[in-house]
Protein 1
Amino acid sequence: MGGKTVQMVLEYDGSRYFGWQLQKEEPTIQGIIEEAIRRITGAHSSLIASGRTDAGVHALHQVCHFKTSSEIAPEALKRGLNALTPSDILVKDVRHAPQDFHARYSAKSKTYEYRILNQPDPDVFVRAYAWHVPHDLDFAAMKACMDLLQGRHDFTSFRASGSTNVNPEREMMRSELHRSDEHHLIFVFEADGFLRHMVRNIVGTVIEVGQRRFSRDDFVHILHARDRRLAGTKAPPQGLYLTMVKYE
Amino acid sequence: MGGKTVQMVLEYDGSRYFGWQLQKEEPTIQGIIEEAIRRITGAHSSLIASGRTDAGVHALHQVCHFKTSSEIAPEALKRGLNALTPSDILVKDVRHAPQDFHARYSAKSKTYEYRILNQPDPDVFVRAYAWHVPHDLDFAAMKACMDLLQGRHDFTSFRASGSTNVNPEREMMRSELHRSDEHHLIFVFEADGFLRHMVRNIVGTVIEVGQRRFSRDDFVHILHARDRRLAGTKAPPQGLYLTMVKYE
């Protein structure tokens, strides 16, 4: 395990992939990039991301790092990786980082966006890039829920079922809902970290508030109850984008 | 061959398909829809489109028709087709048409758009939905070429190689170039008909004018020469959209 720590920024369309994490039989982002690095440097390097995106989830700005004894220049590595990887993965930036840089542990915040197509008919061109919600939504009630999430909370109610081994408290620096045009809504979440499925569980629950299945008071109750059986249905993966990772 | 003529409007993402026209081994739009009609009505119907889109070409508004003796109501047929077809095909409208309606021969004009992503880096999310042209382009020169195309012309120079059996004259009602935002260009063509590959050959040639490989005078010469060996390289399919078909 040698010399240099290399830090990269990736953009990917997650539609075709079984998520970030290496799998034996299925294509994953980690698998594709590690194989390309091996072909360029001649040695295996383990790639560590700021966080593991799930199958179908996209990234506009995913940060990852690996260690290598290769002397290849970052710009040449970037060109080589882009030549070797499919067109749904783009290596946007490659640079040398301080020896102790860690894509996950050094991160100060991550930002996710979740996109909703809100119109009666589906749209064939965004089926893999947004969640189609055909119902009328109470935008003001949804915005009120998003406001409630700001600050430090125990997000147990919105974590994935079965995941109990990490501290469920997170600092939510931004939680916003925007109408980007007549038919598109965008949720924005920036936090010091996210529990597994947390964004998708929050979005699914806020959408149920928008559909008036839950009230704003129900939402407060769900957040404070620390009981993951209370939240709404998890939103599907294709609306979710990792859009930024910030470091010191 | 019975009773009713049914007219439909389709939207589709052509990425996964080998074009409109039925093929034995490969998925095509015609093949998918004809099979769904057969499952709903119990009988085969031949589907005729306003024009056959090529592999990878998209449609926001493709019109097609078929004849059937089925008594099924248009609204029920629409629901059934949307339930049976994949999410990259959307049946937007189904209605009964006059007995002699013909999706191709009754059409008065068709409109195509061609989308260009014009920035140094590719974008993983539009790789299947626009042509990535990284070079600086002379927008004014390209616009001048588009203006020249208006009116009645012999488009032999821009037809597909090997297709010689139809009259190459077409009436171009609109030929425009717009900058939709900083990094996106949109070509719009409305004509009484299009020769095979005509839009892609025109766009490829106009882009070469934008790159200053051809001058505006070269473009005039190419158009008037009626010689398909002179035009530029054909633009790739993924930027092309059939956006409207007009009838009387």
Protein 2
Amino acid sequence: MQIRIPHVVIVGVGFAGLYAAKTLAGQNFRVTLLDRRNHHTFQPLLYQVASAALSPGEIAVPIRHIFSKAPNIETLLDEVTGFDLKNQRVLMDDDSIIYDYLIVASGATHTYFGHDEWASLAPGLKTVEDATEIRRRVLLAYEIAERDAQLGKPVSPINIVVVGGGPTGVELAGAMAEIARQVLADDFRAIRPATTRVLLVEAGSRILSTYPEDLSRSATEQLQKLGVDVLTGAAVTEIADDHIMIGDKLLPSTVVLWGAGVAASPLGKRLGAPTDRAGRVIVTEDLTIPGHSNVFVLGDLAAVKQSDGKPVPGVAPAAIQMGKYAGEMILADARHQPRKPFVYHDKGSLATIGRSAAVGEIGRAHFSGFPAWIAWLLVHIYFLIGFHNRILVLLQWLWAYVSFSRGARLITGQSRSVAPREHGVVHEADVSNEEVAQRIGNSVPYR
Amino acid sequence: MQIRIPHVVIVGVGFAGLYAAKTLAGQNFRVTLLDRRNHHTFQPLLYQVASAALSPGEIAVPIRHIFSKAPNIETLLDEVTGFDLKNQRVLMDDDSIIYDYLIVASGATHTYFGHDEWASLAPGLKTVEDATEIRRRVLLAYEIAERDAQLGKPVSPINIVVVGGGPTGVELAGAMAEIARQVLADDFRAIRPATTRVLLVEAGSRILSTYPEDLSRSATEQLQKLGVDVLTGAAVTEIADDHIMIGDKLLPSTVVLWGAGVAASPLGKRLGAPTDRAGRVIVTEDLTIPGHSNVFVLGDLAAVKQSDGKPVPGVAPAAIQMGKYAGEMILADARHQPRKPFVYHDKGSLATIGRSAAVGEIGRAHFSGFPAWIAWLLVHIYFLIGFHNRILVLLQWLWAYVSFSRGARLITGQSRSVAPREHGVVHEADVSNEEVAQRIGNSVPYR
């Protein structure tokens, strides 16, 4: 039965993969979702986990649960290692799946511009694990300072440095300033978190460079009002345990967060199609790769040009539109209808900065401050996957807004850089488990 | 200023330490809370995190946040290594704190009866990390079975074995049965989670042995109704990756959970006072240790007899009463009032089994099923620390109750048994961080 109906395999369940699947739900196709994670992460709110405003469970939903009512959609937790386009196969470790249609949407990860040694010193923000690691480091910095102060040891001021003035860096910097100035204000006795220096470092001439200049200016002012120092034209040349270098200028740092470079998932290159400098697959006008009209590449993994020649931005709305488009084209094929080229509809963009602080651009209109923030809030709550999360997140936010309290301010687990034996016997190596985790847990980060 | 007022140091912020501190909040004492975790864990609901019904952030609250409005209470995230009673010092790695009063309430951990090699094969449930590790293993078991089934590989049935028929084991077994029969029912295509076998193994003659026999019987029946096989008089002699042995009988197991032995925190022995077989400190009638009326030992770490000679049970209400008592005695000393001996008020006990299933004993009255479950629910929501959590947890539960959905069904992080290098470069060793985590992160689990 299943053998006869065409099989669509979707690799990576970010926004693009998710909406492609939603479009095919209940249709006469067998759809297999392949992801190394069991959950879809609502990336736009990841920084709220990093800043302890939300718990991971509030911004991530089990993939198979999203499609529990769609019997034609299967979910597979596994690791894609490559593709055999000639035989229409997706390759895993020692397994493979045959497809009629392939959708690759494994997204992007952060890049350290060749300085991979910075990765452990300056975590980025792509996964739930990244977010909880950032939360752990930031909260721990205050705990250590408080302890040292109480024990009469010398305490150096806390400097949180965020590298990269794009939307992620701006979100993180604003959130870190809020934690320091508001959330933790009353909770310490020997140190004053409000004296924390939050520094946003951008190599370019202005932050939020994809936005109009007036909004960059406004964003800078709003960040400064939150207590963030914004440093532009400042390229990081070194990151160490306790400082960063900008040119030959040394800046002390307690915690460094990485909001800079983004590179496409390595899976793109394994398709054998041409890629751009960022490793994104250069797709045809129907988002497929040359010579393979049944292989779509979507979301951050795809390099797509708009009619005006500008690239389609790597944002959630674009990924969602691509996902829907791919699903519709597959349905069109079944109806023997011709494919229309993909057209990106720019509905405007919003970047949040902090409590009542944001910037937005919708058509020719530019917004700043509270109105932009409310717009951002509503849009994101609306798009949050999973009704039950949507309600609870709204409540969490309302609560956090009135109380400045942080429900998710937990330091859990170990630094992922601590060897397991140090956990003591309870966590000693469990081989079978280890193998499983290796097979399933470690690979190219999906979007 | 602080130097003159007496200094109370509380080691371990479980229920006992927490309520001792609450009693001393705003009083003319300087109070220092010492814990290796930054959060107080609401242990009675830990099994709900293990069963993905709640997120860690919903049952754990940052300790310093609980006391943000009590300026006389400081929180210190650090690792206690021992005590110097003669010089009234609490010892950490290379620091120490002088106290006037010492309260040690570092609780209990699970013991494997000398089979420490079982620890990695059968995680217990004492910390948030334990709970998320159990959640990870259980969810992963279904993911792997589904994948193998979809890839046409042989799939062996899923057997979840819970060792130990005490309250924790009963909670876990009931929760696992619910996940299998209800929560995951519609989410898989190639396997039927409802066919999972959940087995509760108890060495003694009956489960919930601290309860009256009729309630043990009722609990067994309620478990069976949920789909749990209850095996009593069955001592586990071996635990392996894929099976356990009971005597010479082999039972296949996919996941094994440990709800059996409990041992006092090693810190108890380091007080140099007499301890019982379980390592609990044998305290005097005012819960102090012989010859040191300023050193209290509370909660699961203390061996206390009731007037009738029965031991005070290791339950939250007892810990709370001891904490309040110690705080009051310290205040009494300041007023030069004599100390009254500690008296445990048994307000009855409740054990939850699952959805609408529980048993309870209040005075002579015995409850079962829905009424007992409602009583349990109300009591626990009431006691949940942190108003904002209380509300959200209630909502989570209501939602989970009507929808059987599980908001927290995430597989995050790696098995704590996977070496960090396997995480890939993003998680490479970060020495400074590692040292910190070693100093703060690893030690005797507190209650």
